Amino acid sequence: MDTSPASLLRLLVPKVPFIARTALWHTFWLSPTSSKWDLRTEITVNLIRSLLDSPEPTPLLKQQTWSLKDPGIKGPMWISKVTLPKPQEQDIRLVLIEAIEHLKETEGTYTTPAILPVEAEWTGHRANVRHDRPRLDLSEAQHYERLMGEVTSPVTILYFHGGAHYLMDPASHRIPASRLAHHTNGRCLSVRYRLSPQNPFPCALLDAFQAYLSLLFPPPDSFHNPVAANNIVFAGDSAGGNISLALLQLILEINRSVTRKTLAFHGHSIELPLPVPAGLASCSPWTDISRCMPSITSNAQYDYLPPPLGKEAISRFPHDEIWPTDPPRGDLYCDLSMLDHPLVSPLAAQGWTGSCPMWFAYGEEMLADEGSAIASLAARQGVTMVWEQYEAMPHCFFLVLEHLDVSKHAFKNWVAFCSKVAGGAEGNAGAKLETKGTWFAAKTSKETAVDVESLAVCSQDEIKERMQSAKVARMEGKEGEAKILPKL
User: Fold this and answer.
1) Cα dihedral sign for 315, 319, 324, 327?
2) Which among 34, 95, 374, 449 is placed 20 to 30 Å from 206, CA to CA?
3) With 70 as the cut, is the pLDDT of residue 180 above it?
């Protein structure tokens, strides 16, 4: 992502009057969030909201290209760029398609993806260097060797970046990935999964599945040795949280329904059932592509995410080389007929039994209801579920508002969960965890216990009905795009 001073200046100068007005309203307690936010938060959230809801949206390819600009590597991080080769065998694609078909409740359209090499970045902490210290001129193998020289725990975080499925990559998320590696004393493998709309569902999920198996069973000439599942944590933010949960649900579904006994992968014969990871830890996971839950509107005042767009607004959205697609598709990530599929929208999943422990952190944001529904269902099905929600905080607040005490607290808890579930050399440390829900008050971080099993604001039947209704409305053209077309 281009965060150069010149780029930021071009972005912010036209917004100076808006920033001044926002500061004035906050100072005189005229803003509805003045009692919950400090001035910096007020300006940041309102500024992002104004950029995402611009009356003159930028074409998708230009947005995507801007978000993929590499900021460079410097400071206290080790980065080793790798390419995970594609297996000659086709088994991972075949079991993915089998799982997709088995989870279908209605007809749905998707394109079977090709298996391709997957790029990724090993990320670790580089101690005792300034933030402006340049990257050493070494080979990628040497960078990995240096990285591993500072790793003192077995924690391995498989990280999936956010970006609404069509923006950003590991380069944009090097700072949070390196911080996770630093504070867990471990390492992250940050995956450059295929982006939409050029590569719709299930391309990104196939890449994620290939990355996980590559940790367990390294392809030839890999830098890393085999990593035990009980030392791996799936992690991600926003759309990356979606991929994390979809990958976990895919593994559970393979173990539930796939009839084969082995899976061929780079010459390995992997016995089924597949091992689940030690844990899943996600910041504001986006679990409902249909965006049908009540908090989409009820929590909008605390969030910067754009509202759902009407059909007329969609018709005016600028066309470019990647949008609309050919043939036309009603959603960036998938065909509209797949909106309520569990591997597209994990909110639709009915079964989490057999899952690893999970940790969710949300603000009082537009996506909160979909996360609480999954947490509630998983807890009722016997999954260890740690739920944290922070009053008046927006989407991915502890990655966006790092200066806040509540953000530091949330990030610390993210690290603690990863270390606890995956830090043991033997066995799964997740057994030490208990299901727990906590509400954190704005500014003070005062904690109030909540019952995770009763978090859901809608029953499973109501959720199913809402998702189906939203899908039908989109297919009939009564509702437009939602988060999938932020107007940067």
Assistant:
1) positive
2) 374
3) yes
Q: What is the DSSP string of 189-239?
A: EEEEPPPTTTS-TTHHHHHHHHHHHHHHSPPTT-SSPP--GGGEEEEEETH
DSSP state of 114: P
Q: Residue 56: its pLDDT value, please?
A: 81
From CA 249, how far away is CA 370, in angstroms rounded?
A: 16
Pairing mode of beta strands 385-390, 268-271: unpaired
Residues 149, 80 contacting (CB under 8 angstroms)? no
pLDDT of 96 strictly over 80: yes
What mean pLDDT is predicted for residues 191-212? Answer: 98
Average pLDDT over residues 319-337: 93
Quickly count: other Cβ atoms within 10 Å of residue 135's Cβ: 14
> What is the Rg, in whole angstroms, of the alpha carbon atoms belonging to the chain?
22
User: How many angstroms separate the CA atoms of 241 and 168, rounded?
Assistant: 14
Q: Do the beta carbons of residue 450 and residue 387 sit within 8 Å?
A: yes
Q: CA-to-CA distance for 395 and 286, rounded, in angstroms?
A: 10
Instruction: Evaluate if pTM is beyond 0.85.
Output: yes
Distance from C-alpha of 368 to C-alpha of 391, rounded to nearest angstrom? 11
Q: Are 455 and 387 in contact (CB under 8 A)?
A: yes
- Under DSSP, the state recorded for 13 is G
pLDDT of residue 424: 60
SS3 379: helix
How many whole angstroms separate alpha carbon 279 and alpha carbon 233? 5
Residue 370, both tokens:
């979909």
Q: What is the pLDDT of residue 5?
A: 65
| pLDDT computed for residue 485 by the predictor | 44
